[in-house]
Each structure stands twice: as C-alpha cells, then as structure tokens.
Amino acid sequence: MTAYYNEIDPYAAQWLRNLITEKLIAPGDVDERSIAEVNANDLAGYTQCHFFAGIGGWSYALRLAGWPDDKPVWTGSCPCQPFSAAGKGAGFADERHLWPSWFHLISECQPMRVFGEQVANALAWLDLVSTDLEAKGYAIGATIMGAHSIGAPHIRQRLYWVADSAGPWRCGWATLEGARSSELGRPSPHILPGPWPGDAGSSSTVLTSELCAPSYGLPGRVGLLRGYGNAIVPQVAAEFIKAAQWALTG
C-alpha cells in the first residue's frame, strides 16, 4: 500500500514529504532523481506510482474521486514547457520532453491504468502518446477541462487523458471513445454537468485545497507560486477520474 513519487525539484519533493506526514496524500516514498535514471526494478512493490509528482495533486485527486490508496494506478503530468506558450517553443526537440522516459517505464511495467495531464494545446503531443500506448495495447481517452468547470474564478484549461489496458470504453461517451486531436473540444456532459462559462448559474467560487497548507515554513513566496503554478487542480482531475471510471467497462 505504498506509493512512489518521482519529483526532481527539491522544494516540491519536500512538500510531498510534508503532505505524506500530514496524511493528506497516499503514504509512500519520494525519489528526487530524474525520471531518466529510474528503471523498472526501482518501482517493484509499489501500488501507486506518481511521476512528475509536483505537490501531490494526482494523489489528492484520486482520494477526492474515492480511489483507495491500495488500488493500483500510475499518474503523471509531463513537463509542459516544450509545448506551453510560456516555453521556448522547441516542442519535441526540447530536453524537457520526457514522455519517452515515462513511456519506457510504462512499457516495462505495464500498469493497468494511467492518468495524465498536459497543457491544452499539446495536441501533437497527445497524438504521440496515443500512438505509443495504443501500440502496447492500451485504450486511450482524452478531453480538455478547465478549472472554471468546478467553480474556480479562472479558466486554466488542461488536457486530461487516461490509458487503460482492459478497455473498451462504455458506448455513448464520445469524448473518451477513440479521442484524437481533431475530436477534442468541449468535454462530454458525462465529464461535468456544468457550470461552463456563459451557462446559467455559473459561479466564481474560490477553491481551497489542503495541498496548500503544510509548507512548514519553507521559505519564499516564489517557491509557493512555483508549486501552485505547476500543479494540477485536484478537483478537476477528480472529476475526470470519476468520469473515466464510469466510461470504462474493464
């Protein structure tokens, strides 16, 4: 029932340890090595594996979605800088394009289910991920969701995806049934019933999260902003996890 967290940034890695101590995310070990240095043997015995773990957003989201700590799963949010407007625009040539390293571990260990996230405009990246995983027998689903969808006062759209080795998708959920770049758009109603921007009853509720609490005096507002800025919105990820659970028949 132990989780593995891989996070190269020392500040975020310590944040993870603090969250584990406070029992806010799944208990486990934090590995600060680059994912390129991790091999399949390092992951033996772990129930959950969280790569590019940041400040533990995926583990927290799994709990919000009712996913038990002892249920196997892999998660990861590959670095967005190669494909983000804030990056250098180098794309697949960027040294921070670390999907090949993660895919190597997925290929070696064959986890049953993998959840991931990337910036919303990384559709060429998604095509690569889908092609790689489908070649290994995974069924892939993806959609674009924003923080506004769960009442946050900002949009923060992100591309969420799931890969499952059992499949197939439940009929009728078009967004997760063979989704490809050209098919991504407003998420299916099965993802979230609303509110969407412009919908009646849309709210601007400010979200709070226990993930923001136990920093134990680690210095620097810049560090805090970096942690939050690189993190997923766990409440959004939780809705995606629940919807994927519904959509999968395996």
List keywords for this structure.
single chain; 250 residues; alpha/beta; Rossmann fold; seven-stranded mixed beta sheet; 15% strand; globular
Q: Can you give a write-up of this model?
A:
By secondary structure, this protein is an alpha/beta fold. It has six helices and seven strands. It has one domain (3-247): Vaccinia Virus protein VP39 (Rossmann fold, 3-Layer(aba) Sandwich), CATH 3.40.50. Strands 2-1-3-4-5-7-6 form a seven-stranded mixed β-sheet. Helix 1 (10-21) links the parallel strand 1 and strand 2. It is globular and about 30 Å long.
Give the ordered list of helices and strands: EHEEHEHEHEEHH
Uncertain ranges: 171-225
Mean pLDDT: 75
The SS-based structural class is: alpha/beta
Estimated radius of gyration: 17 Å
Strand sequence of the main sheet, in spatial order?
Answer: 2-1-3-4-5-7-6
User: And the CATH topology?
Assistant: Rossmann fold
Proportion in β-strands: 5-15%
CATH architecture: 3-Layer(aba) Sandwich
Per DSSP, the total helix count is 6
- Sum up the overall morphology in one term: globular
